[in-house]
UniProtKB/TrEMBL annotation:
It comes from Streptomyces lavendulae subsp. lavendulae. It holds the Pfam family TetR_N. GO terms for molecular function: DNA-binding transcription factor activity; transcription cis-regulatory region binding. This is HTH-type transcriptional regulator BetI. It comes from the Bacteria. Keywords: DNA-binding, Plasmid, Transcription, Transcription regulation. Residues 20-80 form the HTH tetR-type domain. PANTHER family: HTH-TYPE TRANSCRIPTIONAL REGULATOR RUTR, TETR-FAMILY REGULATORY PROTEIN.
Length: 199
């Protein structure tokens, strides 16, 4: 008697939906869909199909597409702040925080795409405002270090320079348009770039 092949996991299992964890499953499915097709292509109907739930489930949890993408952005900024804060605590080094920024973008492409496109989200949502502010505070810590090294200690310019550098590098890398050699390690290059600014 042959043993039947194990059944493949359902979409709901794959996204972690187990008795009450539907919101988590829908967010996971949304991030997956964004990474595959981009945020503008995401639909609540497709999201329900991916998660293996009723068509009404996403609307029940998020209201509409803007509500869904706002939740993705909130989660993204929280994860982002966690990554930056952990790097500050471990290293106290602006260059390493810049590398953490790049690493986050590469590891969380779905979140990253939504976080910096305010037209996709409810920008006045309290949880999004709070999460964004927390991430900004972590970035300002690096700007303060840079400002201390510049003539006049202009913190605003230091903030703009630091953020523009690491965000631009990350966005180019995520989009695949950064002209790096095929065998180059993005994190290693990011470290060199941020240390150059830190001079």
């Amino acid at each position: 008697m042959t043993t039947p092949a194990p059944a493949s996991r359902s979409a709901a299992d794959r996204h972690g939906y187990h008795h009450g964890d539907l919101r988590r499953a829908l967010l996971n499915a949304a991030v997956e869909a964004i990474e595959e097709s981009g945020a503008t292509a995401v639909s609540l109907r497709d999201l329900a199909r991916r998660a293996g739930v009723s068509h009404a489930a996403p609307a029940h949890h998020f209201g509409d597409k803007a509500g869904l993408l706002t939740a993705v952005a909130v989660e993204g900024f929280e994860l982002f702040a966690d990554a930056l804060d952990a790097t500050w605590e471990r290293t106290g080094d602006f260059a390493e925080v810049g590398v953490a920024y790049v690493r986050f973008g590469l590891d969380h492409r779905g979140h990253f795409e939504v976080m910096f496109q305010p037209a996709l989200c409810r920008t006045d949502a309290a949880d999004l405002t709070a999460a964004r502010a927390r991430a900004a505070d972590s970035l300002r810590r690096g700007a303060a270090l840079l400002a201390a090294r510049t003539d006049g200690g202009d913190r605003q310019i230091a903030t703009l320079a630091a953020w523009s550098l690491v965000h631009g590098f990350t966005a180019l890398q995520v989009s695949g348009t950064l002209p790096l050699p095929a065998d180059a390690d993005p994190e290693s290059v990011a470290r060199q770039v941020t240390r150059f600014l830190g001079r």
